[in-house]
Amino acid sequence: MLYINKVPIPDLSVEGAVAPHAQDIESAFTKFIESSGEALDNPTKQSVLEQLIRWSGPAGKEMFPSWLAAVRAANAKVKTGGLLGASRMEEAKAHNEEHFNMAMGSVNWANCGKTSDNILFELKKLHPELADGITNVERLTVPAGKGEAARQALSAVPQQGQILLLDCTFPLVHTFVLEVHSNGNRYLCQGYQGAYFTSWWTGKDDSGLNIGKEQDKDVTEADRIRLNGIRDGWGLGKTIPVDRFEAMVRTLAKALDIAGAQDIAEDHNDSDKVAELAERETAAWRAFANFWLDLPFFPVKREADSIGKRTTRPEIQITRIQLPDLTKGAGTSISVSVVPNSIKG
Question: Which of 67, 206, 237, 288 could be a cystine partner for 259, CB 3.0 to 4.6 Å?
């Protein structure tokens, strides 16, 4: 059994078990490289991952304070000739390459922040002419209190012959992609870390939901009904009805405005009581979180409660990516079409 910060990690050799932890493991790889200055190529990462998988099995028992510490220890074991030492690197590479690629690849489509990058990457693979054809890339940050500016930015429609991808991020919370056609057709494409893969959202693989009754007992039946309802209304590769979209951007704008009106004690002095200051610092996100269940992302009460504990103020960052209309005016989604049919880790 593998323990990370005293939390037991289930046997990672079981199909799909790596996926909920893939983002943490990839982040640990990045932190290890930054802190040690040591490069980790893919074969080494594959070996490190296999070592973590071995430790997580029923025959093992290893405890680490963090995923970074676990990656550091696994890398040391690989380098010093442990279970996957240098003499077995080629064997490990051959045996685990597909497993590693699937596990780490699942980060891309379960991690909301990488969804737009992957959509563009896949589109460029299918249509190399797009490599130089991305035009009018603009980045806009809309802070709390500027709800109307957010509504207008999200309501933009491209000119004839163009498709507009709006890569939208609430920092440290969620990223989603709106695909907008000149005829007004809109599609929402997203994954949600620890909750669902993009393949589940688009209706290509129902096993891509990570919060089933067995996986996550803290998610209520009402949560699941709401989540499946937003997929039915906003996902599955379907066009978003105009009235539903307009209601969403109004809700989002209102949430930003109300959050911006909160006193979060940006300027405080040492005389402030700690509890009072903490309460005021979370006020803006707590106000925004009151609208979370009405937004089509991950409308789960537990998530709303978590978002309500963040500090500072919400904002939305919007990147505009303008592409030629590959559908020739048909209005069908280009982003949904490149999402894999099945994603496993």
Answer: 288
pLDDT tens, position by position, 264-291: 555 555 555 555 555 667 889 999 999 9
Q: What are phi and psi of 157, to 5 degrees?
A: -130, 135
Q: Is the pTM for the entire model greater than 0.85?
A: no
Structural contact between residues 307 and 208, judged by C-beta atoms closer than 8 angstroms? no
Question: Strands 2-4 and 62-64: what pairing?
Answer: parallel
Q: What is the dihedral sign for C-alpha 252, 254, 257, 262?
A: negative
Of 260, 252, 270, which Cα lies nearest the Cα of 312? 260
DSSP string, 41-95: -HHHHHHHHHHHHHHHSTT--EEESSHHHHHHHHHHHHHTTSTT-GGGHHHHHHH
What is the tens place of the pLDDT at every residue in 175-199?
Answer: 899 999 999 999 999 988 778 888 8
